Every structure is written in C-alpha cells, then in structure tokens.
Amino acid sequence: MNELRWGTPSTLRALLCELVSWDSRTLTKGERTFAPKVAEKLKELDYFRDHPSHLELHDAGLGRQAVTALYKHPKAIETIVLISHFDTVWTEEYGILEPLAFHPEELTKKLLEHKEDLPESARIDLESGKYLFGRGTMDMKMGLALHMQLIEKASVEQWPINLILTTVPDEEVNSAGMRAAVTELVRIREEHRLTYKLFLNSEPSFSQKPFDIEEYIYTGTIGKIMPAALFYGKETHVGEPMKGMTANYIASFLTQRMEWNPLFRETDLGESTPLPVSLQQKDLKLEYSTQTPYRAVALYNVFLLKRTATEVMDLFEQVATEAMAACNDSYQIICEREQVTGVGKVNVLRYEQLLEHAVKKLGAAEVERLKNEALQQDNWDDREKSLRIVDHLMIHCQELAPATVLLYAPPYYPAVNTSNDPLVIQSVELMKQTALSFNNKIGQKHYFNGICDLSYVNYGDNANGWAAFERNTPVWGDTYSIPFADMAKLKAPVLNVGPFGKDAHQRTERLHVDSAFVEMPVMLETLIKSMYPCQ
Ligand SMILES: [Zn+2]
User: Fold this and answer.
1) CA atoms within 13 A of residue 159's CA, in its CB half-sphere
2) Residue 494 CA, ligand 1 centroid: distance in Å
3) Cα of 171 from ligand 1 centre, angstroms
4) Distance from the CA of 202 to the center of ligand 1, in angstroms?
5) How close is the Cα of 191 to the center of ligand 1, in Å?
6) Which residues face 282 on adjacent strands?
C-alpha cells in the first residue's frame, strides 16, 4: 500500500506552507532559487526517481527557470497540461507583520492580535477560522500544491492519462516564464508524441465584491495590451513660450481621449472589458530647468476580448489622429490670438514609420547603434527601453517634429476563450455538479479578469493580427518577444479551476481552507478522470 506524501488535507496544507515559505517575489533571488527547490521536492516521488528525464528546468531569463514534470502512462497519448506560476507580488504592505508574510500559520494567528487594523470583511473571515492568510497562499502557490498532489496521485495510482505539471516565474511582471515554457511544451509534445487535450490553470477564484462568496471557474482569460506614445514638441525658454510647444500640451489631448474611451470596450458572451486608463505620463527631461519640456511619454492600459494587436493599433491611431487634429485646432486659435505663425502642425506616425524614415536617413547601422544605446541600459525595464528607443530616433529625425509617435510597450497578453468547446462545456457542467456535493454553487466566467498565463496557449488568430505588435514594439526581438507561432501550435481548450480566495495582492490575501484542502482535490481529480480516454 502506497502512502501518499500529499494525499490528505493536512499534508497538503503543510506542502502549501512550505512552498509559501520559499520567498519568490518577482525579480528577487528567491524567484531564481524556487524552481530547483520544486524540482528537488518532485524528485522525492518514486516516479521521478525512476524517470529523471521527465523532470526538466528551462531557462526563463535573468537566472530564473520554469519547471516541467511529465507523468506519462505507458499507453496514454492524451495529455493535460497543468499550469501555475510560483512568483508572488511583494510584501511591504504587511508593515510590522512583513516577516510573517511567508508563514501562513503564524501570520494567521498573529493577525488575531491585530484584527482591529483589518477591514471588516477580512476581520470576519479571520475570526471565522476558515481562512489561511499569507503572501502567495491564494495567488497562487495553492494551485501549484494541488498540481503536485495530482501528479503524485496519478503516478502512484497509474492513471491512464498523461499530466505535465508546468510551473513558471515572472507571471506578475512580464510572463517571461510562460513565454519560455510555450516552446518547451511544443518540444515535449513532439518528443513524447503526446496530444494536448486541455490546458488547466489553477489560478484562484476571485471574489467580485467584498462579501461575495460565489466561486467561479473560468473558460478563458482576458487580454491586455499597452499602446504608448512619445510626444515630441519644440523646446524654448519659459520667457518665450510662443517659440516652442511643450510635449505636455500635446500629450494632454491624447490622454483626455484615451482614458475611459468606450471605443476600446469589448463585450463578448455577456462580459465586458474595463475601460482604458493611463498608467504613466511623464516628460523625459532629466532635471529641472527653465527649458520647456519638449519630449514626453504616455502609456495606456487596454483590455481585450477578441481584438488583435493590429486592430487595437488601428483604433489607437484613429484616436490619436483625432486628438492631434483637436490639438492643432486649439493651437491655431492661440497662434492667431498671439499673432505668431507657430511651430507647425503635430504629425501622427507609428513607430514602424519612424523606423523606416530613420533607416533611410541615417542608415541601418546607425539606427541599430541608437537602439542599442537604450537596450544596453540594464537599469531600464522593457517599457522604459521601448520609449527611450523612440526618443533616440526622434532626436535624430527632428524634421518630423512636432509629432506623436505611436508604439506598443510590453507585456502583451492575448485574450483566449474556449467557452464553446464541447469538452469545456461538459467540464463546466461536471464541476458545477461536483461542487453541489459540497453544497457549493459554482458560477462560470468566460474571461478570467486577473490576467494569467493561459494567454500564451491556444493562440487562435490566423490573420497575422500580431504583425502590428511586432512592427511597433521597439524592443521586439531584442529584450522582448512572444512565441506566436509556437502558441498557435498549442491548440487545445483552456480552463481555470482553482481554490477560492480573497484580496490577492493585498496584505489581507487569504485562502479558503475547505475550498483549498478539501474540495479542490476532489474537483480536480474528478475533472481529470472525466478525461480518461474511452477504453
Ligand atoms: Zn496569479
């Protein structure tokens, strides 16, 4: 009789607490050491001791790694890919309790002494004893713990279906982990002649309102893209304002029209995207002076359900063209009032047009050199590098100014939805039924609204909808890329079934104990067993 290591609620809870205790905040040393630790843990299973080559670490950049662990039944071809991320957001909001953020049992006890500092709904949950608090409990080390439990049980009981546990870093920032894993998943499939039947993520079910305890499973995930602009005006001295045009003046017209713009709202299957907002708007002057700011940048957040990068760029260009027409009109009125000729009209162009112009004017080698100047700044992230590349090129192409240059800044998460897939329809029904046996009601959402790594599988656009992204992302192919072709090869429905929790990314992040340790193991096992090939 085989004793399972992680087979009971209490051993599963201990496993979760151990995973949480390995600090793996995004971009810390802990994020780099986490993958080898998980691999060591999985090596404790007989299956991986007997099949060491089925357990692999994959480079995900900056010293980080993704882990894949394949349980392969000798006769099975059909395979379920289990996806999780192991990085977490940071912990400063825990204040004096920060040292306990990675120790859920201690933190949950200690919080009772500080409960008057908690918001009401968190206090009630704490006193109920039904929740375990801590960074990463809900988002999403519980998902990883559940997948580890599944792969152990499957390998010991020799389930007639294959599972690939895939756990990745960097989900909270750039998803470098999942973008690296995609290519490996294609390779593993070929190497072992597998068929991928389902991509199963176990991100937590998010409550929609403070006292909402409805649980959801998700049959797709929302997408996100970041249109950005560099505004290039004309410098002058503050004493002679009419001799120039500030970038801030130009930027104000576009930001007014981008924020809350309903043109970017998408609706599908009764769900809608949140409206766009600006994430950043700043001038690029390095220090204070009385020279007017003539270069500025803005970054906007746009959510997606169906649209491709090409469609969003078309819309963005349309809005920018209208914004600059309004800018030019109001500037014209001011010039007439002040009886000056002005600095000219603001042009709108895409990054790809600027690049073409720059290559013609300066030559390809010089353009590469200018780009590299920005790419080599290790203290700049991909967003800053993108904006600075445009800035470097514009400084050498001032004949285009005044201008608004449109671009994309990373990351880009395509939307995915497989609600209409027969396997998904059947699985949703099964999950609803299974939940009823715990007196639980489960709802379906068509798009997971928390952004997740499922964006990088089952890419379904056959019309090169990503082309505008490749051509207008200045760091594309250098410090950022998305394996669109491999993503399109990972054709299988997606589903997210995970434990219930509340307040991800807050100091009150907490996991519902029964959902995580009692119900989810049954739900996930039932789901996987329903996919056994017909014998
Ligand atoms: Zn997450």
Assistant:
1) 23
2) 16
3) 7
4) 9
5) 30
6) 297
Q: Cα of 59 to ligand 1 centre, how many Å?
A: 20
**53 CB burial (10 A radius; 0-12, 13-18, 19+):** exposed
370 by DSSP, 3-state: which? helix
> Which CA distances in Å does 162 have to 70, 76, 77, 354?
7, 6, 7, 49
Residue pLDDT, tens place only, 213-254:
789 999 999 999 999 999 999 998 999 999 999 999 999 999
Structure tokens at 361: 């004017």
CB 229 within 8 A of CB 254: yes
Please, are residues 189 and 44 in contact by the beta-carbon 8 Å criterion?
Answer: no
Neighbours of 240 (CB within 10 A): 9
Given a contact cutoff of 8 angstroms between Cβ atoms, the answer to whether 206 and 140 are in contact is no
In this model, does residue 356 exceed pLDDT 80? yes
CA distance 198 to 470: 28
Residue 2: pLDDT band by 50, 70, 90 thresholds?
low
CA atoms of 344 and 342, how far apart (whole Å) = 6
* Ligand 1 center from residue 102 Cα (angstroms): 16
Distances 47 to 54, 75, 104, 156, 226 between C-alpha atoms, Å? 9, 16, 30, 8, 43
Is pLDDT above 60 for 181? yes
Edge-to-edge strand ranges of the sheet holding 162-168: 55-59, 65-71, 162-168, 78-85, 195-201, 494-496, 215-218, 442-445
pLDDT in tens, 63-120: 999 999 999 999 999 999 999 999 999 999 999 999 999 999 999 999 999 999 999 9
DSSP strand pairing (162-168 vs 78-85) = parallel
Q: How is residue 239 annotated by DSSP?
A: T
The gap from C-alpha 167 to its chain's centroid, in whole angstroms, comes to 14
Angle between helices 364-375 and 351-362 (to 10 degrees): 120
**pLDDT at residue 1, as a whole number:** 46
Q: Which residue has the tokens 């907490």?
A: 510
Which pLDDT belongs to residue 209?
Answer: 67
The Cβ of residue 111 has, within 10 Å, a number of other Cβ atoms equal to 23
pTM of the predicted model over 0.85 = yes
Give the closest residue to 457 by CA, choosing from 489, 424, 498: 489
Report the distance separating Cα 45 and Cα 155, nearest Å: 9
d(CA 114, CA 98): 13
